[in-house]
Amino acid sequence: MKYAIACGLLLSVVPMASVAQVPQPAACNRACLEGYVDRYMDAMLAHKVSDDLFAREVKFTENGVRLPLGSEGLWFRMSGKGTYKFYVPDVETQQIAYFGTAREKEREETLTVAIVLRLKVVDGHITEAEQLVIRPEGGLTSSGGQAPRPVSTGERVEKMGSPNPIFLQAIPEAKRPSREELIRTANYYFSGLQRNDGKGYYPFTDDCDRYENGNHATNVPMRNPATGQTEVMSCRKQFEVALKNTVSRVRDRRFVAVDRERGIVFAFAFFDHEQINWTWQLGELFRIEDGRIRRIEAIFDRARYGTSSGWSTYEQGISDQPQIIR
């Protein structure tokens, strides 16, 4: 062993070979990342935070509010797991996004809620957990002869059964774009929707389809505001005709997971509607093929106008520029 003297103290110098022998946790593959979501959901159901799953300094938010992990929000009231599961693993950044459903105890009633989730895994532990929980509007079912509560977002998402098979198809390796190219294409959706004049760049396939909160939102009968007639509109036709000047600003665009194998991009964002002082807080994913968006699925909830994600600075939170989260 060699020694060195510094500031009057005798310091041992550890050989470089010894430092190199420190084992490093292996990176998670797709199945491993999906397993972290399953373990997270099990832990939330058990209302138990363990050191073997979570880092000591884990950061947790629910609906944009930072909370102590394990004792508040859905962690306090979850009573069962739902059946809808949609995983978006990002092996390159060791993050995973997820759409799912769960049961939440509300007094004497069990409600079905929708969940949008992002986890960050570092050295075998979850270091960041970000979730949106979309609860039934108005809470409990009305009683006393009043009309029953309408079908909730969680119930509609659960009725979808499983992700559409298109989302599960692998893109041939030779045709897989870079993550930057995939994010650029997905961001065209947000940019096209913001203050849309019907003349933007809308990179949709002819058979593009979109679901919002479990509802089929395209290729179904809807009113054409230009003619007043009801017609079936594609993704592109909606942007050209029906969604003009609907969204004032699409901000805090945080692209948190990219599944290059399946051509899927997942993002968090806020849709502001200045005219009615209304904000949607959402998670949205895109299936992209040959530089065009083929399928879209979004889960969102109303938030206070101008609210923040809890993960961005003020400047990032009001910006419409994309953030690539690693």
Any chance you could write out the topology, listing elements then pairs?
Blueprint: E1 2-6, E2 9-13, H1 16-20, H2 30-46, E3 54-62, E4 65-66, H3 74-77, E5 78-90, E6 95-106, E7 109-122, E8 125-134, H4 153-159, H5 165-168, H6 179-193, E9 204-212, E10 215-216, E11 221-223, E12 230-232, H7 235-242, E13 249-259, E14 264-273, E15 278-289, E16 292-303, H8 314-318, E17 323-324
Parallel strand pairs: 3-8, 9-16, 13-17
Antiparallel strand pairs: 1-2, 3-4, 5-6, 6-7, 7-8, 9-10, 11-12, 13-14, 14-15, 15-16
Describe the model.
The structure is a single chain. This protein is an alpha+beta fold. It folds into two domains: 30-162, Roll (Nuclear Transport Factor 2, Chain: A), CATH 3.10.450; 170-324, Nuclear Transport Factor 2, Chain: A (Roll), CATH 3.10.450. The protein is built from eight helices and 17 strands. The strands form four sheets. A seven-stranded mixed β-sheet has the order 10-9-16-15-14-13-17. A six-stranded mixed β-sheet has the order 4-3-8-7-6-5.
